[in-house]
Design goal:
Elements lengths: L1 H23 L2 E5 L7 H16 L5 E5 L7 H10 L4 E5 L1 H6 L15 H8 L2 H6 L3 H5 L1 E9 L3 E4 L13 E4 L3 H9 L3 E4 L5 H6 L5 E4 L1 H6 L8 E4 L5 E8 H4 L4 H34 L4 E4 L6 H11 L6 H12 L1
Parallel strand pairs: 1-2, 1-3, 6-7, 6-8, 9-11
Antiparallel strand pairs: 3-10, 4-10, 5-8, 5-9
Helix pairs in contact: 2-12, 5-14, 8-13
Length: 327
């Protein structure tokens, strides 16, 4: 009888253990706007594998690329409601809600891709993430990036005057819109999957894009003039829903934070490693390449500063950090 009672007690304990693990186990959902072939989506898959492995199979992550869950504004709403757990986001929607993040898009804030990565890894950039839970309901765990911004156009752009009235596809957020308005262009927000056809049918005259997307999605087939300007960096932020974060214990928070930040940083490494080679690949296409610097956009830069300096309080701090990192 005693032996039977012992066996029953052990069985109940085992059952309770399984129940506890099951209650804690999660199948998280992570959304992105990038296609499956893009490095952001690939590293999202890598994060899912890492979290599953490090949690001993307890947690899994289902990845939804290519706007399967909606555009970024819609995904931010889902994150705030807790119906979406995680996302890799451009800072577009974040900067629309927290103007300080717009400072990261200051024209010519950084000199090149390595300088951009160093600034995003700085203490100042990390400090900015602390404002996200209170102001957006999201928890930012780390930065990634896309490449430095260039201009690809259907017609040649030989001077800043050629931007006048040009319909330039942009990611829909204020800092980049204000830059192109200041340059005299007509910024035209479009989702990434619509860009190729928009160039083909003349809906847009040019696009603001990085090397990787230009080559990966073959936009040069529809626009054969490339202005290499490196005029802005393009940060990404890895986020978790604040509602979901509040349901996690400290161990799971640290597990997720570590794995997600690691794969976001892998994205920066990827762009650093391949940026120059991608540029050379594009130079090898049958396109016209023009290289320009800050002087090309001088008036637009000054106008952008006049708009953003009063509302992006981190702008001088980022400039100071960028200057130190450039030394």
């Amino acid at each position: 009888m005693t032996k039977l009672k012992t066996l029953m007690t052990a069985a109940v304990a085992a059952s309770l253990t399984v129940t506890a693990v099951t209650a804690q186990a999660r199948d998280f959902r992570l959304g992105l706007v990038t296609p499956q072939s893009h490095i952001w989506s690939q590293e999202a898959e890598g994060f899912a594998e890492t979290l599953n492995e490090r949690s001993g199979g307890e947690h899994s992550v289902s990845i939804f690329p290519a706007q399967q869950l909606g555009n970024e504004a819609q995904m931010v709403q889902q994150l705030q409601a807790g119906s979406l757990d995680m996302a890799f986001l451009t800072l577009a929607e974040i900067s629309n809600r927290i103007p300080d993040f717009g400072a990261l898009y200051a024209p010519f804030l950084v000199e090149d891709i390595d300088h951009a990565a160093a600034l995003l890894r700085s203490e100042v950039a990390a400090e900015m993430l602390e404002a996200m839970p209170g102001q957006t309901g999201l928890v930012g765990v780390g930065y990634g990036m896309a490449g430095m911004r260039q201009i690809l156009s259907r017609q040649p752009i030989d001077s800043a005057d050629d931007l006048s009235g040009l319909k330039v596809r942009i990611t829909p957020f204020d800092p980049i819109r204000d830059f192109y308005v200041a340059a005299g262009a007509a910024p035209t927000p479009l989702p990434l999957p619509a860009v190729y056809d928009a160039l083909a049918n003349g809906q847009v005259d040019a696009i603001d894009m990085d090397y990787d997307s230009i080559r990966l999605l073959e936009f040069y087939e529809q626009a054969d003039n490339l202005v290499i300007s490196n005029h802005m960096m393009f940060p990404m932020v890895a986020v978790v829903s604040g509602r979901v974060w509040g349901q996690l214990d400290n161990a799971d928070r640290e597990l997720i934070r570590g794995a997600m930040a690691e794969h976001a940083d892998n994205i920066m490494n990827h762009f650093q490693e391949h940026h120059e080679a991608w540029g050379e690949e594009l130079r090898g296409q049958d396109i016209t390449v023009t290289e320009v610097g800050p002087d090309f956009f001088a008036d637009a830069i000054a106008e952008w500063e006049a708009i953003w300096a009063p509302k992006a309080t981190y702008l001088p701090l980022l400039r100071e950090a960028a200057a130190e990192l450039a030394d």
